[in-house]
Hints:
CATH superfamily: MFS general substrate transporter like domains
Helix content: over 70%
Oligomer: single chain
Number of domains: 1
Amino acid sequence: MTTTSPAGTAADLTGQGRNLALATFAFVVSFWAWNLVGPLGVRYAQDLDLTGSEKSLLVAIPVLVGSLGRIIAGAMTDRYGGRVMFPLLLAASAPFVLLVAFAGERGSYPLLLVFGFFLGVAGTTFAVGVPFVNAWYDAPRRGFATGVFGAGMGGTALSSFFTPRLVESFGYTTTHVLVAVALVLTAVLCWAFLRDSPRWTPNHNPVLPKLALGLRLPVTWRMSFLYAVTFGGFVAFSTYLPTYLTDVYAFDLTGAGTRTAGFAIAAVLARPLGGVLADKVGPRTVVMASLAGTAVLAVVVALEPPAEVPAGIAFVLLALFLGLGTGGVFAWVAVQSPPEKVGTVTGLVGAAGGLGGFFPPLVMGATYGVVLDDYGLGLALLVVVALGALLFTARQPAGRGEAGRA
């Protein structure tokens, strides 16, 4: 069984900071790879003459495997540990980065969809890192630990900012080769220096029954819904925002990528803050604030205010509220999940969050120009979902000791 003993001593946890930092770095690199298609979506759309729906499917498709694959990755982490799973997933992602480059050079939309689908493997590392760092920290600091690790989603910001610039400076194929090499080197680094917590022991129970048990926990369903809204909103904007900014504000590829990076950085900075605040005031309060702010800011964005002010400020604030929510939700997961099921619950909740980011780009592409020549209908749906999630959260128990009852 996977256990996280509450009786560990300070000596047991020597190296927790190093392992947290290395896991976060690995998460950054893998999320850069996971988000390679989104920053170049406008380029693909122009080169391949894609429709709005085809373009939105292309940028969303890596999210699918990165979401569903988290279920298996989380369960395998319970069995094999983060020290094995991080290098395995990082190395497995590298070939698909190169295959995406091959498909792009050939100008093949079907191949881009196929290889982009499997590129989603890079997004599964999230379900590895949360149980990994969770085992290294005592309960009062798990919100902090999962928040810091979750800040590794800043890899999407790095991808949005640097990928278009690397393509301009070194070329399309060379950029993909550099990212693939970074994945392999990070895998080697993790294998050499990453260590599982001494509190962790492998859970050898069969995966499918373990997943079934995880699905029977009410905490899994509650947190899955909330994470689908908060993290899903972040992923959706991170992947589709370059297209949105090009369509609405006529930015070029580099300009849209720079602003998308700013959005992602704001969410990244807010995520550990959400975890820390959850440790202090409770995760329910943090998540409610996040959802209320998201609903208000989505209304402001839907009005298409002028760039850069106030539109830029509105997008940054929207990112901050989404980031707070992602940190708050996973602090809630760490508190309420039974210790031996943290990896499984993390995988299921992480999958829900990723799926929450898969569908909005498809909706945005499908609803663009349906009512007016804008994205107002898609953003109106975000407002409705955020308000519904806010009401749902308000009805949840505020107590922190629910793991045994979940």
